[in-house]
Amino acid sequence: MFEDKNQPPIQSDSLKCGMSFVRRLDMYVNLVGVTKAKAKKIEKKMTCSNDCSGERPLIDAPIRASAEDDLGRAPVAHAFAQSILELDASQGLVVGVLGPWGHGKSSFINLMREEFEGIPKEFESSEELEPTSEESETRHALTVIDFNPWMFSGSDQLVDFFFTQIGAELKVKNESRLGKIADQLGQYAGILKPAAQLIPLPGASAVGEVIAAGISGLAGTTSADRSAQKVKDDITEALSKLEKPIVVVIDDIDRLTKIEIREIFKLVRLTASFPNIIYLLAFDRERVEQALSEDGVSGRAYLEKIVLMSFDVPQAQWKPFQSRISAELDHILALIKNTTFDKERWDYQVYPKIIMPLLSTIRDVKRYFISTKETIKNLGDQINLVDLFAMEAFRIFHPEIFRRLVKLRYELTEAYNFMDQKDERSKKTIEKLLEDFPDDNVIHSLIRYVFPAALSAHEPGDLGSWRAAHRMADIEFLNLYFDRVASDRLIAFRHSEYALDFLNDHAALKKYLIESVNPEMLKDVIFGFISLEEMFTDDMTVPGSITLLNLIGVVPDQQRLFDTVGRVVYKLLCHVENEKKREDFTEHVLKDIETYSSMIYFIDVVFGACTDVGSLPVKTNFRGEIRRRFAKKVGKTAPPMPLREWDIGRVYKAFLEETYADKRSKAPLSSNDDPVLLQKVLHSLKSAEPTQSSKFPQIWSDNDLDWDDLVKLFGSEDHIGAALSKVRGKFGDDEVLRLVDRYLGGWRPEFFYTGQSQAKGTKN
Questions:
Q1: What's the pLDDT at 66?
Q2: Residue 8: CB partners within 8 Å, gap ≥ 6?
Q3: Is the dihedral of CA 184, 240, 276, 207 positive or negative?
Q4: What is the pLDDT, as a whole number, of residue 56?
Q5: Residue 268: which of 237, 307, 229 has the closest Cα?
Q6: How far apart are CA 173 and CA 195, in angstroms?
Q7: What Å distances lie between residue 72 and 30, 59, 67, 107, 322, CA to CA?
Q8: Distance separating alpha carbons of residues 488 and 483, to the nearest angstrom
Q9: What is d(CA 19, CA 21) in angstroms, rounded to the nearest whole number?
Q10: How far apart are CA 273 and CA 601, in angstroms?
């Protein structure tokens, strides 16, 4: 209920008005003489403004008018203001608007101001709501002035500033009835400035008597004292003649220091007896009571001696509160192009479990979206938006936790291995973080929904899906958020994402990978395709596989690239579910692969010979047919581009495997072949086998040749010798060629068998 000075003082357990919204609105209707029909139109107008809340620039500042009222508080504020006007202010009046910091006290006062100063401007401009002459008579146009307590420092300035500022604002009003009062207030300020220090602290004995003596009489000993009393009497007389009271608004009291809060309330208590002065104080009751408590004297008791009427600003209603959040979210998302917003994760995980618990007031909402806006604008097209909103909430509302998260990047993103094991130190670090905040469900939800690898096991494909979704569960994206600098690996992955659009176009993909990607980064770019496998389509399989397999023979670091290419090709084939279609695609790819090395590698990928890649189910007869055709091709035709062959040894070993039992098979190589090819074959069949001498127990690596295979490939040692001469004549001598000479001379390395050495030859 509303409290007035004719009722008992404010009870210590309640400085509030508990009237329901409907009763407040009805009271407002009855007090100001507006018909209920017009009241509904007003409410409708306010509702319309709610729908447009997202169109206004978001600033962390109080609303100024009912048109900005998204929470439906305007009718309540108007009703409370009207109830104040009905009270007797002939002896002064102190009214409190109460609520925690950020609860909307300043906005509520501004809505009250509409009622104090007259008909709200938006209503005045509406023909539909034009008041009748009878309604106009019930309206009040009070003088409302603001005193900013932040402008003073110390009690020696407080009184001076207070009366000087009030006098100045009265002069600005340019009303004859107020001009004289303004001048008198200025005089009063000058006289009382030296006496300000006589004002006692809250809790002093006989507070009221001392205050009264301090300002009214000043012991009556000096002419200055008598002058002060005379000016005070003149001010009192002038104020008592006013038809309407003056409202003095003192806001943001709870933002002051403890000492400053005490000074403000000393001043109000000192001057509260001036007639027709209504002090409207906005503050957080809990903070003010703590500041006023001293020497065993209750701050609440002291406050009750000053504030005769109060109102607790109501908590924002759920629906308009949610509407405001949704409007601001839509506004920010509209700024981001070429990105997706995981609405399901937002609706069921991050928003209800992380964001919403941290937003309790409209100020929180404003602060959150204002602070988040720049981060979202800068990173929203690079990092998962839902994760960004979650981490920004911690940055803004839990900075102490956020600072710890910055130092726990590895622990937050280190994934469990295939055995569901995690580094014990990392696990304990995350557990310690959660133990430090046992009652904070928000931090627990953050770990669960944003950093799933921190404490729980995951599926093997999760790492790739997190990276594909730009989740902060991937350390590269987490580092980007913290550091605002993309690593080389992340740059490579962004290349992967861009190149994905070309995976179904052989020419475009080849052009992009060769011309736009640094060769040193090429492996990482191709590896990035694996994380994007959920986006693969059947039409990517053939052109993508051909391009990547042909690329191996072009780039400088071929051995470093081929295993990565194999994994991507395998993933592309896996997405072809129809077995007959998969076989057709295999045939198409083989037809357009440019090197024998890539052909046999692709065949091994398809048929599971590459154990680190995987295997595809294909018919046994299809496998046999493909390998036989390849061996036949090798036996009949030498590689057309030997310089690009990156693993010619694998090619010819595959030939030998398929033709070993065929005594009629012709050796595929001769001294007439391209010397480039011959050199590559000789070099490719070199190996380093573990060797142990019969004389020395230690094992070492010695250069070795797959001599038996080499003889089969050339048909005889004589043909090898002829090929050796041709290669040496073209390229000169090297270590491998000298090793071939040693074999041709009868030398063979020693091999270790069951603890005994066996020499294949001792010449040279």
A1: 83
A2: none
A3: positive
A4: 52
A5: 307
A6: 29
A7: 19, 19, 10, 12, 13
A8: 14
A9: 7
A10: 97
pLDDT average, residue stretch 374-378: 92
CB atoms within 10 A of CB 579: 13
| 8 A C-beta contact, residue 671 and residue 706 | no
Q: In angstroms, rounded to a whole number, what is the distance separating the alpha carbons of residues 43 and 625? A: 82
DSSP assignment letter at 196: G
Question: Mind listing the pLDDT tens digit for each residue in 25-51?
Answer: 344 334 333 334 443 443 443 333 333
CB atoms within 10 A of CB 484: 10
Range 332-339 average pLDDT: 86
Helices (H), 92-222: 105-117, 121-124, 133-138, 155-173, 176-192, 207-212
Question: Residue 556 class from Cβ within 10 Å (0-12 exposed, 13-18 middle, 19+ buried)?
Answer: exposed
Angle at 555 between CA 552 and CA 557, to 5 degrees: 90
- The DSSP letter of residue 701 is E
Task: Retrieve residue 32's tokens.
Answer: 């100001």
Q: What does the DSSP assignment read for 55-72?
A: GSPP-SS---SGGG-SSS
**Amino acid in the structure at residue 260:** E
| Residues 6+ positions from 593 with CB-CB distance below 8 Å | 546, 549, 550, 599, 602
Q: What is the 3-state secondary structure (H, E, C) of 288-333?
A: HHHHHCECCECHHHHHHCCCCEEEECCCCCHHHHHHHHHHHHHHHH
Average pLDDT on 171-195 reads 68
* For the chain, counts of helices (H) and of strands (E): 36, 9
Question: Which residues partner with 750 through β-bridges?
Answer: 759
d(C-alpha 389, C-alpha 376), whole Å: 8
Residue with tokens 């973080």: 433
Q: Whole-angstrom Cα distance, residue 641 to residue 545?
A: 19
pTM: 0.71
* C-alpha–C-alpha distance, residues 498 and 490, integer Å: 13
For the chain, percent of residues with pLDDT exceeding 90: 41
User: 709: part of which helix (H) or strand (E)?
Assistant: helix 707-714
Cα 764 to Cα 748: distance, rounded to the nearest angstrom = 9
Q: What is the spatial distance between Cα 668 and Cα 684, in angstroms, rounded to a whole number?
A: 16
Angstrom CA distances, 46 to 22, 40, 67, 68, 498, stand at 16, 10, 6, 8, 48
Distances (CA, A) of 75 to 39, 104, 467: 9, 15, 51
Distance, in Å, from the CA atom of 284 to the CA atom of 97, rounded to the nearest integer, reads 9
Cross-strand bridge partners of residue 146: 249
Give how far the C-alpha of residue 713 lies from the chain's centroid of Cα atoms, to the nearest Å.
62
Distance CA 631, CA 620 (A): 17
State the Cα–Cα distance between residues 435 and 450, nearest whole angstrom: 18
The interaxial angle of helices 441-450 and 424-436, nearest 10 deg, is 150
How far the first Cα of the chain sits from its last, in Å, is 114
Residues near 104 by beta carbon (within 8 Å), at least 6 away in sequence: 62, 71, 73, 313, 316, 361, 362, 363
Of 527, 533, 536, 518, the closest CA to residue 563 belongs to: 527
State which amino acid sits at residue 286.
E
542, 473 Cβ separation under 8 angstroms: no
| CA quadruple 730, 734, 738, 740: dihedral sign | negative
Give DSSP secondary structure letters for 537-564: -GGGHHHHHHHHHHHTTTSS-HHHHHHH
Give the three-class secondary structure for 502.
coil
- 580 with 536: CB under 8 angstroms? no
Q: What is the pLDDT of residues 91-125, one digit of tens each?
A: 889 999 998 877 788 889 999 998 888 744 444 43
pLDDT band at 363 (very low <50, low <70, confident <90, very high): confident
Tell me the CB-side half-sphere exposure of residue 499, using CA atoms within 13 A: 31
List the single range of 91-105, 411-425, 443-457, 737-751 with lowest mean pLDDT. 411-425
Cβ partners under 8 Å of residue 193, min gap 6: 156, 157, 159, 160
